[in-house]
Specification:
The structure holds two protein chains of two kinds.
Chain A (H helix, E strand, L loop, with lengths): L2 H40 L13 H24 L4 E10 L4 E8 L1 H24 L6 H20 L3 H19 L6 H32 L12 H18 L8 H4 L5 H10 L4 H8 L1 H4 L3 H20 L4 H20 L5 H27 L6 H6 L8 H15 L5 H44 L16 H16 L5 H8 L12 H19 L10 H4 L4 H51 L3 H18 L1
Antiparallel strand pairs in A: 1-2
Chain B lengths: L3 H18 L3 H16 L6 E7 L4 E6 L5 H20 L5 H20 L3 H10 L1 H11 L4 H34 L6 H8 L4 H18 L8 H8 L2 H26 L1 H27 L4 H21 L1 E2 L2 E2 L1 H32 L15 H14 L6 H16 L1 H26 L7 H4 L7 H18 L2 H16 L2
Antiparallel strand pairs in B: 1-2, 3-4
Helix pairs in contact in B: 1-2, 1-4, 2-3, 2-4, 3-4, 3-11, 3-14, 4-5, 4-6, 4-11, 5-7, 6-7, 7-8, 7-9, 7-10, 9-11, 10-11, 10-13, 11-12, 11-13, 11-14, 12-13, 12-17, 13-14, 13-16, 13-17, 14-15, 14-16, 14-19, 14-20, 15-17, 15-19, 16-17, 16-19
The chains are: A mainly alpha, B mainly alpha.
Chain lengths: 620, 483
């Protein structure tokens, strides 16, 4: 098999999966229409047919859907030793340059492809179990496959426009999947909110792309070097808006917690492991550009990391806690990507994808088991650990440790690399901020762990039946194992080598110190929440996250309403229409006046005639 | 000599005659299908004359290049779909409907073919007649008011156009002793005039086109006419009639008054950008689905106009022109399709108010899918035609003036705002409990066919834009040649 074919399989296998699912969905819809008519004709009502039933379309979908990302995964493994750039076709011909549709295979894209396709495959398998009883099974997999397709476009693009295609594409799938259960208005609204927030970022992105094009005469990544020094910041700033939107950084964070309304595997795949890390990927991909705006990237990232960690403390919904932790970790990735060793950011993306996906999937197992319960205090009452949900409890602990960066789990390696790189590039201020962020992570994560699983007698049982059945059990098991051994892939060293750093971790901050800080965090968490009690709920301002979400949303909505009111009710209706009304009124008045001249008795006509003649004579 | 262009022009006229005697909607389908087929084989680069009067030496030129060929095919194609849809539409006085639409097609087509400005003027205004009756007879709500508003506004604009045309025609006659309203003669004569005369003459052209496009603040006829017109009427209004204005700007106003266009490009660009943003906010304020889409046209046509005047150096930028022409086609396809969709649901429920709907995605999944596809094109989602058009216009705009370009790009947020907010309220949420919604049936048969054709086009232009852009290139050469 030659490289070109492998590249095409990587890029398009999930799209085939999407098409198959789309056809299946069409068949399903037609069937339900005809059966509805059938029952209608016979006078039977409410014959609730395929609901919950695992029909043939669902079976085909369950078979094909995981196969699609898996094909990409296998092709990625096969292409690992190679490096290539395949031009598939010329997409948009501009005046002097073509925007191509390509597959770029290099170290960076291979790293990203591995976790994107790998984690996708596992989550597809998990989803079969999770969504088994859902009516929208086929629709779910259709969007999930489409998502993987667009995500791969982000990774393999060799130019900004193709990147933008993937960028908006994953956003669209995210929109559909957040609002998957669209009959709930709030779910659909969360999807809408995510799309609009992302669009604000994408507005910056498109401006960035066009500025890049105008300045360099092309849209390929390798044109970065043609930018003049004074042009760097503007381009970087606008493109970073896009990155901040997709990765929910800075003021654009507010869509991600609401995005948790989608099915849990979606949260795991899209809103934790892959899509939200696209911003980091872009920063690393265009490192020469963003290095000129490194303060912007670093401080946005680190402030988000600390703030969102604090927010995570004041949340009772397990999925939203994980969402805040994702936001916080994404901040750390940006911090790493802002350093001279940009690859450290990507390294953390890679390791993070395993433990964060696992954590979400575990919360999904809990929800599945306990009637969609997400409140950690109510989950505690169901005593999951005592029921022998050992994978859930143990896996949660392992992944929490990994996220905190405990040796020798996967998170340790990447976090350590980021701390060292930050210390080198941003000196003391950067280091202190990093240490604060490292301290907060274990506090809020162990809070979730202690509350959910603490104070119970753990029953040991490694049987899939306790943990959601084999379809959900094994993907989680694999992810937990990867969270443990993630370090051995040594992706950091591999990437580091590509970037010409032979000695990848230069321990600027002693790992021992970091561990002391981390365990201090665990200890505090135990002291406060170990008994399962909550700190004062009267601290309203903290529980409401300083009303930041409400304030931002409010400003957006109020200004939108104000502008539409001014535009329509005042400007359009009063000023413009008013003007035309006046004109039409004057025309009518004129019409009446003139017609008055013509009508009437012969005497008046004669008078007018004489008057007219007089005027004419006077003028002459 | 009859050739393919002349057959294309004659067929709809023939159809109008036939429809007087054979009273079935199939006449419309057959004649518009034949027109569509012949329009597909029109050679680019075609150039010929029709002699009207040998004694006066008056003839009308017919000309086809990259600027108009796509619009011609769009016209014949959309008319075919309108006639196909009329087969299943519930509508009174159907044979008159077919007659008027065939007449409309017969009158629209010459405006795209001719380079004779007087002939263009004639058809430009003649279109008002069938459209007036279409809105007035089959419209909804304040249909008579809307029909009058539409005619008065357009007619107001074109009076000035006629005056300018006759004035320049007189100059041509004085110079050559021939009666000619051909573009080439106009260009030659006007370039020797002084700046003020040129400006006044240009305004005569520009006001007529601006009303048609429409630009803010002469757009107020549009929401009423588009909203109250019957489905087919809205499709043709939005899909084709608006483009006659923007097409004529590129075909006539730019070549005849190149230096005026260059001098005042910034002001035209400014009102175009204003239209993009202002139109979007107007759309956001609407409670009526159809009116919302009508206002979105104001915003979208802003892109077309902006692309048409985005200067780079002393030329209009390549990307801007590409984007302008492509956006005309995209808007015709996507907004035309959205009007079809609104018409289909209106026929079932007899309401267009957003508040009368919610959660209907469950009830009408196929309808929903189509609506979202055209929404995506409308908001410029990559892989749809709308993206290519918008991207090209933004490139042109940023090359012209960075700040204007950035404001233009912000239209992407606003369009996503009003369209997806509409989708959210109509299709998602809990299913509305009302009799009409309970009984709602999904699209089927010919409806699905019409929508499928248009959605294939949306993605075709979005994914493989190069053949389209290659064709448009010829049109750009035309514009550049005269700059």
């Amino acid at each position: 098999m030659n490289g070109e074919l492998k590249g095409i399989i990587i890029a398009f296998a999930p799209f085939l999966g999407f098409l198959v699912n789309a056809i299946l969905l069409l068949i399903e819809t037609r069937k339900s229409i005809s059966s509805k008519e059938h029952t209608h004709a016979k006078g039977h009502h409410g014959a609730g047919h395929s609901e919950g039933e695992f029909g043939i379309t669902k079976k085909i979908s369950a078979f094909v859907s995981p196969l699609a990302p898996f094909a990409s995964f296998v092709a990625t493994l096969l292409i690992l030793p190679e490096k290539s750039q395949i031009n598939i076709f010329n997409w948009i011909p501009l005046e002097n340059v073509n925007v191509s549709f390509s597959v770029l295979i290099d170290e960076l894209s291979k790293t990203a492809l591995l976790y994107v396709t790998g984690v996708s495959t596992l989550i597809h398998i998990y989803s079969i179990g999770y969504m088994k009883h859902d009516e929208g099974f086929v629709r779910y997999f259709m969007f999930l496959n489409l998502f993987v397709f667009f995500m791969i476009q982000i990774v393999v693009a060799d130019n900004l426009v193709q990147l933008f295609l993937g960028w908006e594409g994953v956003g669209l799938c995210s929109y559909f999947l957040i609002g998957f259960w669209y009959s709930g208005y709030e779910n659909a609204r969360a999807g809408f909110k995510a799309f609009i927030t992302n669009r604000i970022g994408d507005f910056g992105f498109i401006v960035g792309i066009v500025l890049f094009l105008v300045y360099t005469g092309g849209v390929d990544y390798n044109k970065v070097s043609l930018l003049r020094p004074e042009q760097f910041f503007a381009v970087a700033f606008f493109l970073f808006m896009g990155a901040a939107g997709k990765s929910a950084q800075g003021p654009l964070w507010l869509w991600l917690p609401d995005a948790m309304r989608g099915p849990t595997p979606v949260s795991a795949l899209i809103h934790a492991a892959t899509m939200v890390t696209a911003g980091v990927y872009m920063v690393v991909r265009l490192e020469d550009l963003f290095f000129r705006a490194k303060e912007l990237v670093f401080y946005t990232g680190i402030i988000t990391a600390i703030l969102m960690g604090i927010f995570g403390l004041f949340e009772r919904d397990i999925k939203r806690i994980l969402a805040f932790s994702t936001l916080s970790q994404l901040g750390l990735m940006f911090a790493g990507a802002a350093t001279e060793k940009t690859y450290t950011g990507m390294f953390h993306v890679f390791e993070h994808s395993f433990f964060k996906a696992a954590l979400f999937l575990i919360s999904g197992i809990l929800m599945h088991e306990f009637d969609n319960e997400t409140d950690i205090y109510k989950l505690k009452e169901r005593k999951p650990a005592e029921r022998g949900m050992i994978l859930s409890a143990g896996g949660f602990l392992i992944c929490t440790l990994a996220m905190s960066g405990v040796f020798p789990l996967s998170g340790f390696w990447s976090k350590e690399a980021i701390i060292s790189a930050v210390a080198e590039t941003f000196g003391n201020t950067g280091t202190y901020l990093m240490l604060i962020a490292s301290f907060i992570t274990p506090v809020y994560m162990f809070r979730a762990f202690f509350v959910t699983f603490g104070g119970q007698r753990w029953k040991f049982s490694l049987s899939p039946s306790h943990d959601g059945g084999s379809l959900m059990f094994f993907p989680v098991l694999i992810l937990v194992i990867l969270s443990v051994i993630g370090g051995i892939f040594n992706v950091g060293a591999w990437l580091g080598e590509k970037y010409g750093y032979s000695e990848q971790i230069h321990h600027a901050v002693s790992p021992v110190l970091v561990h002391i800080i981390v365990f201090a965090g665990v200890a505090i968490s135990y002291l406060v929440w170990g008994r399962g009690k909550e700190i004062s709920e009267r601290a309203k301002i903290l529980w409401n996250r300083f009303y930041l979400n409400e304030a931002e949303e409010g400003i957006f909505i109020v200004s939108g309403r104000f502008l539409k009111y001014v535009s329509f009710n005042i400007f359009e209706k009063v000023v413009i229409e008013g003007f035309y009304s006046v004109v039409s009124f004057l025309t009518r008045v004129g019409g009446v006046l003139v017609s008055a001249l013509h009508g009437g008795t012969p005497a008046r006509v004669a008078l007018m005639l004489i008057l007219g003649l007089l005027i004419a004579l006077l003028i002459i | 000599m009859l050739d393919v262009v002349k057959i294309t022009l004659i067929l709809p006229f023939l159809g109008t005659l036939v429809s007087l005697f054979i009273r079935t909607p199939w006449v419309g389908v057959i004649f518009s299908a034949a027109t569509f087929i012949t329009s597909l084989i029109i050679p680019i680069g075609y150039s010929d004359f029709i002699t009207i009067s040998k004694y006066l030496g008056f003839s009308i030129s017919l000309y086809v290049d990259g600027l108009n060929i796509l619009l011609i095919v769009l016209t014949t194609g959309l008319f075919l779909l309108v006639f196909l849809y009329s087969l299943v539409e519930r509508r009174e006085r159907k044979d008159e409907y077919v007659f008027l639409f065939l007449l409309l097609e017969a009158l629209i087509l010459p405006t795209f073919f001719t380079k004779n400005i007087l002939a263009f003027y004639f058809f430009f205004d003649a279109i008002l007649v069938p459209m007036f009756f279409i809105i007035g007879i089959w419209g909804t709500g304040r249909k008579i008011y809307s029909a009058y508003k539409f005619v008065l506004f357009t007619f107001f604009g074109s009076i000035f156009f006629l005056v300018s045309t006759i004035y320049i025609g007189k100059l041509v006659y004085a110079e050559t002793g021939r009666l000619s309203f051909e573009l080439e003669d106009f260009i030659r004569v006007v370039q020797n005039l002084d700046h003020t005369t040129k400006l006044i003459l240009f305004l005569g052209f520009f006001i007529a086109f601006a009303v048609k496009i429409p630009l803010v603040p002469v757009h107020v006829w549009l929401p009423d006419a588009h909203t109250e017109a019957p489905t087919g009427g809205s499709v043709i209004l939005a899909g084709i009639l608006l483009k006659i204005g923007s097409y004529a700007f590129l075909r006539f106003a730019v070549p005849v008054f190149p230096d005026i266009v260059k001098d005042y490009a910034f002001y035209i660009a400014l009102i175009s950008v204003l239209g993009i943003v202002y139109g979007a906010f107007l759309a956001l304020a609407q409670q009526d689905i159809k009116r919302l889409i009508a206002y979105s046209s104001v915003s979208h046509m802003g892109y077309v106009m902006l692309g048409s005047v985005a200067l780079v150096g002393d030329k209009i930028s390549y990307e801007g022109l590409q984007g302008a022409v492509l956006q005309m086609v995209n808007h015709g396809v996507a907004t035309g399709a959205l009007f079809f969709l609104v018409g289909m649901i209106y026929e079932r429920t007899h309401t267009r108010m957003i508040d009368d709907y919610s959660g209907i995605a469950k009830k009408v999944p196929i309808f929903t899918t189509f609506f979202i596809i055209f929404t995506l094109s409308s908001i410029g989602f990559p892989s749809t035609g709308g993206f290519i058009g918008e991207l090209l216009v933004i490139i042109g705009a940023i090359k012209y003036d960075t700040v204007l370009g950035i404001i233009t790009a912000s239209g992407a947020i606003l369009s996503a705002g009003y369209m997806l907010y509409l989708v959210l309220r109509v299709f998602f949420g809990e299913l509305k409990k009302s009799d009409v919604i309970e009984e709602l049936e999904d699209v089927r048969g010919i409806e699905v066919f019409v929508l499928s054709v248009l959605s294939v086009l949306v993605f075709l232009i979005g994914i493989f834009p190069s053949p389209f852009m290659e064709v448009i290139k010829g049109g750009i050469e035309f514009v550049w040649k005269h700059l």
